[in-house]
Amino acid sequence: MPIKVNLAVVLAQRGVRSKELAQAIGITEANLSLLKQGKVKGMRFETLAAICAQLQCQPGDILSYEDEPVAGE
After folding, report:
1. How far apart are the first and last CA of the chain?
2. Kind plus residue range of the DSSP H or E element containing 2
3. Where does the HTH cro/C1-type domain start and stop, copy by copy (predicted)?
4. In a 10 Å sphere around its CB, with 0-12 CB exposed, 13-18 middle and 19+ buried, how is residue 10 labelled?
5. Which residues touch 4 (CB under 8 Å, ≥6 apart)?
6. What residue ranges define each of the domains in the chain, with the CATH number in brackets?
7. How is the chain split among helix, strand and coil, in percent rounded to 5?
8. Is the pLDDT of residue 72 over 90?
9. How far is the C-alpha of 29 from the C-alpha of 52, rounded, in Å?
10. Mind listing the pLDDT tens digit for each residue in 4-53?
């Protein structure tokens, strides 16, 4: 998938633990872990907004688009 989740990097930069963030935004640590690993197929904008508010960042700090090469090129 061309969308990459950089949440672990932002957490490390801010010195915030996953457990603290999960509690602050009201999701389980397991769901946050799946999100950090990029193993989710989607995320609610409400959750993204809560993460950004808590970490004082922009959605683009957490998510990035990396173009995948097209087969045959």
Report:
1. 18
2. none
3. 19-62
4. buried
5. 38, 63, 64, 65, 66
6. 3-65 (1.10.260.40)
7. 55, 10, 40
8. no
9. 17
10. 999 999 999 999 999 999 999 999 999 999 999 989 999 999 999 999 99
